Amino acid sequence: MNSLLSLVRNETVKVWKKKRFLVVIAVLLVLIPIFTYAQMKIAVNSRENFDDWRLQLQQKITDYQNQLSSERIPEEWKRYRRIAVQQMQYYLDHNVNPDSPNAVTFTRGFVDASVSMFIPLLVLAIASDLVSGERTTGTIKMLLTRPVRRWKILLSKLIALTLYVSLLMLATVVLSYLIAGLVFGYGGWTLPVFTGFVIHGSEVDSSSVHAVPQWLYLFMMTGLAWISAMTIACLALMVSVLVRSTAASIVTMMAAVIAGSILSAMASSWESAKYIFSVNLELTNYLAGSPPPIEGMNLLFSLAVLGFWAVSALIVSFTVFTKQDMLN
Amino acid sequence: MTIVTSDAARGGALPNSHSEPEIVLSVQNITKNIRRRPIIRGISFDVRAGEIFGFLGPNGSGKTTTIRMLVDLIRPTAGDIYVCGYHVRREPEQALRHVGCIVENPEMYSFMTGWENLEHFARMQIGIDSERIREVVEIVGMDARIHDKVKTYSLGMRQRLGIAQALLGRPRLLILDEPTNGLDPKGIKELRVFIRSLAEQGMSLFISSHLLSEIQLMCDRVAIISKGEVIAVGDVETLVARNESYVLWQLDDPDAGLRLLAEEANVRVIPEHESRLDESVTALLPGAIVTTMAHQHVAPLIRKLTNAGVGIMAVQKAAPTLEELFLTMTEGDTVE
Q1: CA nearest B92 in A: which residue?
Q2: How close A166 gets to chain B, by Cα (Å)?
Q3: Would you say residue A228 lies in a domain?
Q4: Least CA distance to B95: which residue of chain A?
């Protein structure tokens, strides 16, 4: 076990020295202030128009209901609106502001919005050249001719990757909180958030809805986002083993992720698309009670699909990596 | 480069008899097909403890493929490779512990310093402390630049760092793939001395090259490979002695001289197009007549030529090269 620890240390040091994680942090440091600013503009705007958030929410509900009676709106959209109206009504009835501006709410929104594209992109920045990078530079020849079994080397890379993905989630949450807090204040930990909406068609079953403090909600959400991120990480590791060039491996994975997010927006009629991993990345939606992209999907289903893809990717990675001829 | 004692003489798995030197690397009838095309067609040879073993062949003959099989980078289609008695494929951890290698170029992590690179590879083996790292850094004479990033190193320094890495685990077998590539003449000479000193401490060296003169200068024994087959294995000296020496004659009257030389029964005149001498030899003697003959006939022949009024400007002996040997064995394959 001692040798595995040294190997993990090697891999961690290499990712760090390549300054990949610093790039990720830098991207976060640029993007979060931009979103914070945008969020602040929205807050200022609504404060000008409404003295009370209740009035604002009521207004929104009315807007949505008007849209529902319009014939020009496609049925697909109406379903979303109908569900949203019921949820907003629930918040209104229980006198809870779903969008109260504070750092924790912002963080919640940021994680929610980045889980399907932004976080996968950052994960790819770290994961995509773990193996292919060593092959491009030729260092794989030094690495694999040392007296260590190949599966141990790949396992050490996987463990280091898990470490960095976890660190990435932590950094995302901490940085959003700290930066947004400058503008919105650092409160909001104990605000109640409703979760447990069960969606049947376009009806919301609120019998199992319960309020959780926002910190717990954020924690659960980050956990789910971590699972999505790890699935991406495992797949990226596989592509990195299979493809020799780092550029090709990033492009392949990015294409898959983007294809997934496009599909989830339009695939409600193609039911078997729900078995594609990238359609299942938005686990956090289940927590908020948003309708799933395809009928019949639920949290357990998505977890199973992601788990299946991740495990298959790992099996392929380890099988290929331990048997592969290193010809260049 | 200074030499620090290596403990290359640690016991291996094979019994060490006194008459026959221990075999450190044993390659037994390995073949390799890549996409069904045979690249290596049944290669066998042994490398003994403390010898410098040359692996000679033109580019594309399968040298690097063979080396990659020796260090478990690719898997032979058939055949077995043993290092110190351990099967490379089945017990890579034990076998590779005794091997240090540079396959093709000495590629290290360019974003880390030389020292960090050595630390990285030291962590992959058991029982290598920072004292040992300091030791190998001193062996290859890199003390001054070891804490600089590898991307700032010259090719020669990368080569040294590669050798330092290969020596870290106190290997019994050091595999170097075309080690003189990219080195200047001074560097090549230093490397030769360095390699010899490693062998004197009991380490075995396996050195591939497409340069025949290199192998001749550096190695004790050689395996010659062509088109994926070993066509000869033996002492460099013995293989060279198989061929007669050349004697080059530079005369003021080449036509008369040629007539006289051709009359001699002990002399064979080699037509120009058949001569396989190195250009570095022939360039110094333009228009020289190339012959093969036993050396005791040279002095009488000089007298005879002088008496006949043919002026002798130069007579030079030239050892046959491995290239020639190679060409006789492969019947006209070209060597770079």
Answers
A1: A147
A2: 24
A3: yes
A4: A147
